[in-house]
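Example 3.2
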Amino acid sequence: MKLASRLPGRQHPQIWNSAPQLADIPIISTQTLIPAGARAVILAPHPGDEVGACGGLLQLLSNLGHPILLISVTDGSISHPGSPLWTDERQHAYRPHPQESVDALHRLGVPARGMQWVRGGFPEKTLADHEAQLSAFIARYLKPGDVVFSTWRKDGDSDHDAVGRAGALAAESIEAVFIELPVWAWHWPVREQNKIPWHRARKLRLDIWTTARKRHAMHAYASQLNGEPASGIAPLVPRVILDRMGLPYEIVFI
């Protein structure tokens, strides 16, 4: 997820709960987003992005029996610099076995064994320096007719933006459909709402149980939700992110 440093102390309204355009976004169905028989490919820059960006969509796809490929670009291995709890040794031992992500998928009702899952192992925070390599890596796993979901190319986090650009290039080269998912953009101040491509936005409705499972799944990422006050380390996923996950819809840019 990242970018927690942008949020503490914010007093201004944020786009996710203040922009009037949100009420006018056209509704789109899962069947329209993903044609029958098509495979959905989810690109997650960091652990937890697959839930925060499209945890509801993942549930709907699984319920409809669509094949799913999840590409986890990084493992979050440098997410706690200076932490006495999450030492380098502990992270190296813990992250190669992504139990938090496995648990999160289980909470969504999307068992990891029921989908294809590829882990890239790319270094986080420097993905922009490896964009060509990342695009080639993604393209290796795509096929024509896939529908690729990635973080928005202008989301506001360097890794999210880089994955979006790399994913778009890979999808174009394979003749796959490319759809973007805004994550951190919703936490921009409401005065920046005109930077959102509202004409491309579509709203995917979620029922109460799908929304609840999404929130429950995000709580699987204990290493990101629990800060370390004694060390001055704030949670990587602040409360406002969890609040947004209670919304009964997800928004995509088509």
